Amino acid sequence: MRKVIEGKLYNTETAEMVATDSYSHYGDRGYWSQEIYRTKRGNWFLCGEGGAMSKYAQAIGQNEVGGGSAIIPLTEGEALAWLEDHTEDSEAYEEYFTGIVVEA
């Protein structure tokens, strides 16, 4: 998936996928799937899709919604928060946030 947002090209084929998370299964109205990416320039973004009752829902007619997809740019802080909330992989924290994440 590719999308230009505020003059920046976000491309899942050229960025590095760092982690993924999902809920339910494809076809369920509440289903969603998200992948977090880091671009070669160090920018973060989410690529997600979901059903009609997910945050990715899109209008498909008058008073009707269906599933959809989106690319959402993230700040470094938002990316770190997403990783903390959606993955147990501490290696990702250590690799991408060496100056931020410290031992307790």
Tell me what the structure shows.
The protein is an alpha+beta fold and 104 residues long. It has one domain (2-96). It has 2 helices and 8 strands. The strands form 3 sheets. The protein has a 4-stranded antiparallel sheet with strand order 3-4-5-8. A hairpin with a 5-residue loop joins strand 4 (32-38) and strand 5 (44-50). The chain starts with a strand and ends in an 8-residue tail after the last helix. The mean pLDDT is 93.
The total number of structural domains is: 1
- Determine the mean pLDDT: 93
Q: How far apart are the first and last residues' alpha carbons, in Å?
A: 38 Å
Oligomer: single chain
Strand coverage percent? 35-45%
For the biggest β-sheet, the strand order reads 3-4-5-8
Rg over alpha carbons: 15 Å
Tally the helices: what do you get?
A: 2
Largest sheet: 4 strands, antiparallel
